[in-house]
């Protein structure tokens, strides 16, 4: 079975400080030990020098899952749902891309 890549980029509203973004990154990084099926994970604040291409997206997440079932189980997992709840009132937009590798 192929591995699955899950990529998310976040665009926050103007109330979100860099410190709050870093707190969210720390929560994302904690997924690796807490959610089964994660092979690899990285997350961080957007530091690209391609400023014409940022479009307000300031945080990125990349998760590699061992298979499609692990990716599907991730969404409803309590640790992921806790993170989703912590985004209430903070988001302007989210982009998600999933593909097999």
TrEMBL record:
<dbReference type="InterPro" id="IPR044662">
    <property type="entry name" value="HS1/DABB1-like"/>
</dbReference>
<dbReference type="Pfam" id="PF07876">
    <property type="entry name" value="Dabb"/>
</dbReference>
<dbReference type="InterPro" id="IPR011008">
    <property type="entry name" value="Dimeric_a/b-barrel"/>
</dbReference>
<dbReference type="InterPro" id="IPR013097">
    <property type="entry name" value="Dabb"/>
</dbReference>
<feature type="domain" description="Stress-response A/B barrel">
    <location>
        <begin position="4"/>
        <end position="99"/>
    </location>
</feature>
<protein>
    <submittedName>
        <fullName>Dabb family protein</fullName>
    </submittedName>
</protein>
<comment type="subunit">
    <text>Homodimer.</text>
</comment>
């Amino acid at each position: 079975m192929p591995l699955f890549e899950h990529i998310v980029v976040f665009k926050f509203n103007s109330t979100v400080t860099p410190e709050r973004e870093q707190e969210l990154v720390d929560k994302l990084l904690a997924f690796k030990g807490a959610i089964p099926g994660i092979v690899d994970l990285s997350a961080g604040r957007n530091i690209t020098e391609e400023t014409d291409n940022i479009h307000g997206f300031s945080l990125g997440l990349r998760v590699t899952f061992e298979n499609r079932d692990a990716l599907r189980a991730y969404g409803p997992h309590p640790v992921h749902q806790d993170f989703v709840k912590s985004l209430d009132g903070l988001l302007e937009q989210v982009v998600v891309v999933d593909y097999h590798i």
